[in-house]
Amino acid sequence: MGKGEGKELLLVGTVHGDPDGMGRLLALLRKEKPDLVAVEVSPYGLAYRRGHSRRLQGLLRRRVRRAADRRGVSWKEWGQIQAIFGQLSFPFEYRGCLRFCRDSGARFLCVDLSPTSRHLIHASWDELVSSSNIETLLRRPPEQFRSTARKAYALAATLLAEKERAYLSPFLRAWEGNPVWKRREAALAQRIEKQYGVMNAGLLAYVGGWQHLLHPTDAGTLSDRISHLNPRRVLLADPFSNSE
């Protein structure tokens, strides 16, 4: 499924911050050989990281070290804190897709909304690197970074295999009434459908968070909105491939 008139649409679901994501993504892209790669990242998000990532990571590192020293612990045991460093860096989805496109000659496209990225960054990043957040995380039991990613992929695999709307929609209820979420999903769908519509042949691969791949739901996910294009859905870390 997913092919039509000599072209195909592939949706690749990721767990953001997956420490093994870069290698997995490159292997998948090299196997699938897409002609166009659309990645869930915005021009604003990239520009902000270029201008502020080093400063914010330095600030976070100093605060984390002070807080860890006061407690007499090694902060590197806390995957929750490693995840913040990852969020402040260029996402592996962007780095992997860009490398593949440079090596293969495939086209590269950023499809996320800059206004949405601006809102999310300015609403949460100062709190992420705050001393109070660091203290809160260090009071909690440490979580292994890879273990957390594996659990997220296990949940994603279960939900992507689900066909009943009644089971999927409650999981997305918090987003269902969120106008920012709805605008974002609608824009992603519009941009991908536009690119797919002008393709004469070949494979278009979308790479983004696995939640966008859930279908059927009442939340109007990306996958819901482009289901008429019969996309093939693949979860990055699933060796058996949750494909349709």
Question: Which descriptors apply to this entry?
Answer:
6 strands; 56% helix; alpha/beta; single chain
Describe what is shown at a glance.
With 244 residues, the chain is an alpha/beta fold. The chain has helices at residues 21-32, 43-71, 79-88, 92-104, 114-128, 131-139, 145-160, 165-168, 173-176, 179-198, 222-225; strands at 3-4, 7-14, 36-39, 107-110, 202-209, 232-235. Strands 1, 2, 3, 4, 5 and 6 form a 6-stranded mixed sheet that branches.
What would you say this structure looks like, in words?
The protein has 244 residues and is an alpha/beta fold. It has one domain. It has eleven helices and six strands. Strands 1, 2, 3, 4, 5 and 6 form a six-stranded mixed β-sheet that branches. Helix 1 (21-32) runs parallel beside helix 4. The protein is globular, with a radius of gyration of 19 Å. Mean pLDDT is 93; it is low at 239-244.
The major beta sheet can be summarized as: 6 strands, mixed
Tell me the radius of gyration. 19 Å
* Count of separate structural domains: 1
Task: Give the mean pLDDT.
Answer: 93
Low-confidence stretches: 239-244
Structural shape: globular
- N- to C-terminal distance: 6 Å
User: How many strands?
Assistant: 6
Q: What pattern of helices and strands is seen along the backbone?
A: EEHEHHHEHHHHHHEHE
In percent, how much strand structure appears in the residues? 5-15%
Q: What is the helix content? A: 55-70%
Q: Helix tally?
A: 11
